[in-house]
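Sample 3 of the quickstart, ligand zinc ion:
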Amino acid sequence: MKQVVVFLAVLCCVCEGVRFGQLCAGNPGNTKRGSDGPPYGSGHYGASRGSGTHRGLDIKCTDGQTVYAPFDVTIERRSVPYTDPAKAAINNGIQMRGENLCFKLFYIQPVKTSGSVRKGQKLGTLLPMQRVYPGITSHVHVQMCDSSDPTRYF
Ligand code: ZN
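Result:
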């Protein structure tokens, strides 16, 4: 019986692939940011951003809310999205690995920038996005280290 259970568990992982666990305390289903209209645009991967494109996926969150590790992860380093000093209030994040994926989470104040965090434990707190982008749907930005589309993992 135990062997059957293990076999099914393996099959399940192969079929369904990796899925991110809950990222933000107020968003148990990892609901994605839709369109906020101009000037903020949409939260999906590949959305237009001026002359460029959005290289990540935005998951709804609220300023100051707790952000959780979506898997057991190893934090590799601090990683920031901007060089513009006008955006300093939200210019923080971390790069980590878990479930054989390398990814970055932006707009969070991390509790640490190295070491391990278990799934569901606190990674940090969402920074005050409304201060920099008034009226936007506040969110965590998820970006794969190779800039591929993270949507398949949600
Ligand atoms: Zn984003």
